Amino acid sequence: MTQQTVEDLLAGPDVHAITVTVDGEQHTGTVSSRKLLVHFLRDDLDRRGPKIGCDTGNCGACTVKWDGTLVKSCMVLAVQADGTEVETAASLAEEDGTLNDLQRSFKEHHALQCGYCTSGMLMTATDFLASGEEVSNASVRRALKGNICRCTGYENIVNAICAAGGADAPLPHGREAGHEEVTA
Ligand code: FES
Ligand code: FES
C-alpha cells in the first residue's frame, strides 16, 4: 500500500470550500475539517491581528467577533465559519488608519508592551463597552477575565478601557496634564 502524503490527504475528501466575510471583505478558501478559524485567518488570509497564545481557549489572544458574538478563534473550526462574518481588531481603525477612541486610549495609557495580547484585549473591550454595562475598574477587570497579558500587569489596560468608556482613570506617570516630558 502506498503511503499518503500530506498533499494527498489535503486533496482527498477532507477539503471543504468555505466563504467567510472578514472585516467586511468576502474570502473564499478550501480548508480541511481540522483547521481552526485562527489558522484560516492568519495563514490563509494573512490576517495577523488574532494571535495564537495557547491554542486551548485560555489566553484570549485570538479573540474575534463571529457573527456578532465574541469568540476565541482557536475554539472555532474554519468550516463552522462558512457563510458567516468575522471581525478582527483590524476593523477598529478608520480606513485611513486613524485610531478609534479605544485604540487611542490604549496608546495614551501605555496599555501595551509586546502587543501580543492587544488585538484580543481590544476586541473584548470593544464588546464590553458596547454592552452598556457600567464602566468601572471592577467591571472592566471582570470583562477581561478571559484575556491574559503577560507584560503589563493589567493596570494600564484597565485604565485605558475605563477612560474610553468615560470613567475616571489616571494616566500613567509622565503623561499627566502639566507633566513636562524630558527629552534627551
Ligand atoms: S490562542 Fe485562542 S485562547 Fe489562546
Ligand atoms: S502586552 Fe505583552 S502580553 Fe500583553
Describe the structure.
It is a single chain. The chain is an alpha+beta fold and 184 residues long. It folds into 2 domains: 6-91, Ubiquitin-like (UB roll) (Roll), CATH 3.10.20; 92-184, Orthogonal Bundle (DNA polymerase, domain 1), CATH 1.10.150. It is built from 6 helices and 5 strands, in the order αββαβββαααα. It has helices at residues 6-11, 37-44, 101-108, 118-130, 137-143, 155-164, and strands at residues 16-22, 25-31, 63-66, 69-72, 85-87. The protein has a 5-stranded mixed sheet, with helices on both faces. A hairpin with a 2-residue loop joins β1 and β2. α3 (101-108) runs antiparallel to α6. The longest helix has 13 residues, at 118-130. The radius of gyration is 19 Å and the shape is elongated. 36% of the residues are buried. The model has no long low-confidence stretch (mean pLDDT 91). Bound molecules: FE2/S2 (inorganic) cluster (FES) (2 copies). One FE2/S2 (inorganic) cluster is lined by residues 112-117, 149-152. One FE2/S2 (inorganic) cluster binds next to loops.
Outline of this structure?
The chain is of the alpha+beta class.
Domain module tally: 2
Mean pLDDT across every amino acid position: 91
- Quote the beta fraction: 5-15%
The CATH class of the largest domain turns out to be Mainly Alpha
Structural class: alpha+beta
Task: Spell out the helices and strands N to C.
Answer: HEEHEEEHHHH
CATH superfamily of the largest domain: [2Fe-2S]-binding domain
**Rg (C-alpha, Å):** 19 Å
